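A student in our group prepared the protein record below, which I am reviewing. Here is the record exactly as it was handed to me.
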Amino acid sequence: MAIMGAASGRQRERIVSATGRLFRDKGYHGTSMADIGKAVGLEKGSLYAHIAAKHDVLRELVERGAAYFMDALAPVAAAREPSHVKLRLAMRAHLGVVAAHPDLAAVFLQEWRRLEGEDRERIGKLRDEYEAIWRGLVDEGICDGTLRPDVDRRFAALLFLSAGNWAYQWFDPYGALSSHDVADRFTDHILTGLTPRTSVDR
């Protein structure tokens, strides 16, 4: 029985993984149960033996993505480092999840809105908590002089997140730049700005 259970678990994991790729490529509404069955070589009847509904898989994928992002960021927020270091490490952590788990990242960042009821409310709160951690990092930057005192903490946090969130659309894990390289370039541009420094600034 244990062997059969393990085999069933592996099959379900194949289904969840394939569904993540489909949701990333076609979107939740653009993916049918028939698409999922075709991706894993199962007829609809056999597919329903492993998953009750498409929405259930979406919830699981979004929850997994949320856990990866939160688990990556939490130790950075707790670290006893200068804020400029923590902001850099936070961006590395965020892009590290995008690079290592592109399907989960894409579903968490884009398809979570397709959740309904309590599922959507719960994930919305998790997303708010994640953004709040970023706002906390910005606050630290304001306090220690890394960031200007007049910085809008919410918009600054959203700037970091916006830079990182869209990377799943174009980041190439086999490209010349690693996720850390991309994260560092984003961080450098955000912290130093893009306009030429004047003689007064120097």
